[in-house]
Amino acid sequence: MDFVLLIHGDEMLWDAFSESERTRMAEAHRQFGRAMVMAGVKVKYGAGLTRSREGKLVRPDGPAVAGPYAVGREQIGGIWIIEVKSAEEAEAWARKMPYAPGDIVEVRPCDPTA
To answer: Which first-to-last residue range defines the signal peptide (predicted)?
Structure first.
């Protein structure tokens, strides 16, 4: 089954990181991706995202609206799409992911019919 691991975090906290802290987190995620592959997980995609203010919310019946969109301070900052045997295995990998302070990871199955 395919699962998406959505990394939610506070962009203001990330913006306060030093350049070396950002570099360390990026390297930690590269190592995490390699660890999944070495363990036999099929990593279909992984990426950090730009700030929500750089995106646009598009609706079919109106103009595109610039971000951020969430009511709270948390935004989606990165994603991994992985193929594993079960939701429990996807959750186990989500727990091993490098977390910035305050981050949470949403684990959601991909819909094979979509």
So the answer is: none
